[in-house]
Amino acid sequence: MKRTLLTACLLALSVLAPGSRSSNDTEDLEAFVTEFFAAYGRMEVDRVERFYAESLSHEDPTGGLHLKSRAALDVMWKQSLATYTELDWKIETRVIQGDRAAVEGRVTGKISGRPFDVRFATFLFVKDSRVTRQIDYVDYASLQKQIGAGGK
User: Fold this and answer.
1) Sheet containing 130-138: order of strands
2) CA 92 – CA 152 distance, rounded (Å)
3) Which residues of 125-143 are buried (b: 16+ CB within 10 A; e: fewer)?
4) What's the helix, strand, coil split of the chain in %, to 5?
5) Which of 2, 27, 34, 117 could link 108 by a cystine bridge, Cβ 3.0 to 4.6 Å?
6) Could you tell me the pTM of the whole model?
């Protein structure tokens, strides 16, 4: 079921994407995605902030999150990343189409010392080398089971 949903989302992303990009543009966006998740995994908030446009939409329907500015995102990150002692994004699937990237994989780490390993999917919409829209889907039910009801 989850794989079917991801496949449908990836197909929709490819159909809705604007005109084609050159292979260099695709390689640039692939490098952007790689560095984005690497910086996030290193919990480099100042570095990760530079990936985002000032005006953006960041949503996570699975976590009830909808932010509309980089400033709001900065506040959320500084609060949530303070609880992580380790964070590693393992990208298993990556699809680049136009100015959009769909990424699926696993995120592992520790929250308040408790280990976790959960699935995620992220959709990035990029303009002028900055994320203007991001949609995340995270398996929070599994996360809660792994770290306990008290930690989020």
Assistant:
1) 65-69, 52-60, 130-138, 114-127, 100-111, 84-97
2) 25
3) bbeeebbbebbbbbbeeeb
4) 40, 40, 20
5) 117
6) 0.80
H/E element, 119: strand 114-127
In sequence order, what are the beta bridge partners of 135?
Answer: 59, 123
Cβ atoms < 10 Å from Cβ of 117: 14
Q: Among 116, 102, 103, which residue's Cα sits nearest to residue 151?
A: 116
Classify residue 82 by its DSSP letter.
G
pLDDT at 58: 94
Q: Which of 111, 119, 108 is nearest to 151 (CA)?
A: 111
Q: Which helix (H) or strand (E) holds 24?
A: helix 23-41
**Helix ranges, 44-148 (H):** 45-49, 70-80, 140-147
Chain centroid to CA 121: 7
The low-confidence residues of the chain, meaning pLDDT below 50, are 8, 11-12, 14-24, 151-152
The reported pLDDT for the residue numbered 19 is: 42
Q: What is the C-alpha to C-alpha distance for residues 149 and 134, in angstroms, rounded to an integer?
A: 27
Q: In the chain, what are the domains?
A: 2-147 (3.10.450.50)
